[in-house]
Amino acid sequence: MLFVVSILFYPALGFGLYRFILYQKTVRKREVKKIIVDDKGVHYERNDGTIDHILYQDLEKYNLADEYDVDLSPRNKIYVLKVKHNDSVTNVDFDGVDAGYSSYIVNLKALRRKYIQGIVYFRSDLRINPSVYTTYNINPVDFTFDKKEYWTAFAKTLAVMILLCSILGCIMLGLVKWLSKDHVYLH
After folding, report:
1. Percent of the chain whose pLDDT exceeds 90
2. How far is the C-alpha of 96 from the C-alpha of 105, rounded, in Å?
């Protein structure tokens, strides 16, 4: 029986490792070394030397009346900007995290603000979903980081977490006291 399992398991393990290594190689080629936002758009400098652009002039309007031109798209528990770029929907990613997550972009919020500000200034014909401003805590008037809104949301989340942990702690304490009682009944 062990022989049959090993005949099936080890080739499957080898194939899985082979696919994982191929995936890591393709991901490493797409790693972003540097992100630049200027008056032309956003530029991604990759580790292999190529530079990708999402320029303001290449952004397009949606033909639907109920669709915003700049919106949010969920990805891996965060939201990224979604725009129509060269006849396709493109996610504008400012994370630039490499495959091993060994680096982090420090000025992430500033890059987002500057890109959204560039869309407003250079492409005023595009409609931006108001949830973009609230999600990224950007003041739509002067494009500054809205600290009050950010810390209010943080305080609300912290209060809920403290409340839930307190309730869970009381339940656990009650269970410990109930289980620690002697339940020996003498007849």
Report:
1. 20
2. 7
